[in-house]
Every structure is written in C-alpha cells, then in structure tokens.
Structure to design on (172 residues):
C-alpha cells in the first residue's frame, strides 16, 4: 500500500510442512504448522480486506493434495488439516466478500519443484514422480500461471473455486 497506494491481488503462497506420525506431533509442532499455513492466510486476507474492497480485488490461497486426500506421514496431520482448512476458508470468504466483488479462490498444486521438496529422499521423490500421471513434477511457473489466470479478467466469474495444477496427481 505504501508503494503503490492500492491492492489488486493478494496471494498467500507461504507454507511449511510437518511430519507424522500423529502420535509424535507435539502441540508446538501442531501450532507452528497450523499457524504458518492457515492462520496466516486468514490474517493476511483480513488485513487486505479494506484495500481489496476499493479495487474489487482478488485473493488466491495455496492448498495441497494433502488437503483433499489426507496426505501421509511425509507432511503430517497438521499440514493435511491446514490445507483442508484453506479450501473452506476460501469458500467462506468467497461468499462473505462476494458483495464486495472480491473473488477468493485456491490453487491445489501437485508436487512442485521447489525447496519444499528438499526434505524428501531421492527414493521418496522418485516414487512420487513415478506416480504422477503426466510423468513429472509441477514447475513453479505452472503454478504461477494459475495464479495469473485467477487474477485475470478471464476468471472474473470464478470465486470459491479450487484449481488443481498437479499433472493429475490429485486423482491418485
Ligand atoms: N512444493 C510443493 O510440492 C507444494 C505442493 C502443494 C502445495 N504447496 C504449497 O505451496 C506454497 C508454496 O510452497 P513452496 O513449494 O514455495 O515452499 P518453499 O519452497 O518451502 O517456500 C516456502 C515459503 O514460505 C515462506 N515461509 C515459511 N514460513 C514462514 C513464516 N513463518 N513467515 C513468513 N514466510 C514463511 C518461506 O520464506 P523463507 O524462505 O523466508 O523462509 C518460503 O518463501 C505453500 O503454501 C505450500 O504448502 C507446495
């Protein structure tokens, strides 16, 4: 706001994974993953609401296949819960803020080639890659293209939706 004097697009693209099993997750770990992935998305959207009202702006959140299929111990229970929460937070805000003409949507990226994957072993990564119907990881550019689409005039009548950019991973 200081630099441009307006806010057209609010994109929440930060996150951290946790780990399982559920029986080993401390309350501190649980809170860290929920706060970083979900609570921060709410607080950012809340902070952006007034300026977005003025511009009839757009909000885009990042979920994950874990938010649909429950995930595994590789990312843990808090990540699965947070990424499921993101989907419904977007739906809630999409309804409440429709009167302001603020569109709120979510992207569900598959396994994207970013530093988030550094925690995985080569074997784990190969297993995931081999299970993706389109045969490769998603690129950050492909996710960015989805964000650009949801922020564009082409998506003017899309709100409360989720866009799956996963090479088919969401189906498995
Ligand atoms: N990569 C995937 O396979 C994948 C799949 C599905 C969904 N996603 C989601 O896509 C989004 C982007 O993930 P990514 O792959 O880009 O992950 P990444 O490479 O690990 O980057 C995570 C980003 O989040 C920021 N971040 C973490 N904790 C933060 C905090 N407490 N305060 C401020 N910033 C913080 C990091 O900033 P610093 O670098 O400054 O720490 C970094 O920019 C996340 O929501 C993730 O859950 C990723």
């Amino acid at each position: 706001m200081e630099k441009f004097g307006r806010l057209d697009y609010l994109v929440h693209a930060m996150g951290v994974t946790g780990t399982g099993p559920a029986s080993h997750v401390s309350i501190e770990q649980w809170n860290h993953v929920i706060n970083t992935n979900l609570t921060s998305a709410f607080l950012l959207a809340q902070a952006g609401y007034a300026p977005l009202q003025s511009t009839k702006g757009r909000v885009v959140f990042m979920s994950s296949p874990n938010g649909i299929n429950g995930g595994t111990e590789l990312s843990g229970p808090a990540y699965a819960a947070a990424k499921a929460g993101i989907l419904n937070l977007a739906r809630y805000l999409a309804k409440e803020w429709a009167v302001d003409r603020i569109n709120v949507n979510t992207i569900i990226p598959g396994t994207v080639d970013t530093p988030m994957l550094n925690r995985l072993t080569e074997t784990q990564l190969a297993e995931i890659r081999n299970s993706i119907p389109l045969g490769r990881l998603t690129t950050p550019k492909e996710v960015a293209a989805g964000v650009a689409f949801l922020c564009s005039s082409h998506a003017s009548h899309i709100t409360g939706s989720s866009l799956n950019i996963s090479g088919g991973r969401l189906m498995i």
Q: What stands out?
A: The radius of gyration is 16 Å. The mean pLDDT is 97. The first strand starts at residue 9 and ends at 12. The chain has one domain: 9-171.
